[in-house]
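Journal club side-thread
Mid-discussion, someone asked how the predicted structure for our own chain would compare to the paper's figures. Pasting it here so we can look after the session.
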Amino acid sequence: MLTALAAVPLSAQAEKKYGPGVTDTEIKIGQTMPYSGPLSAFRYDRKAQAAYFEMINSKGGVNGRKINCLSAR
C-alpha cells in the first residue's frame, strides 16, 4: 500500500478542481436582464442584486471568494 501512495505525485494530491467561473479568489456568475421594453421595470431587481453582492463582498465574500456578477442585455 505504501508503494501505491508513493506512486502518486504530490502535485496531483494538491490539485484543486473548480467548476467553470470559479477560481481561488472569485466566483463569476452571469444573468440576463431586460434593460429596455415593458419588462425593464425589473432593472431595480438587478440594482438590488448588485447591492447584495457588494455587501457579501465587503464582508469577505463566499469562503474568501468575491462574487463577480455579469449582466447581459
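Post-session note: The longest helix spans residues 43-58.
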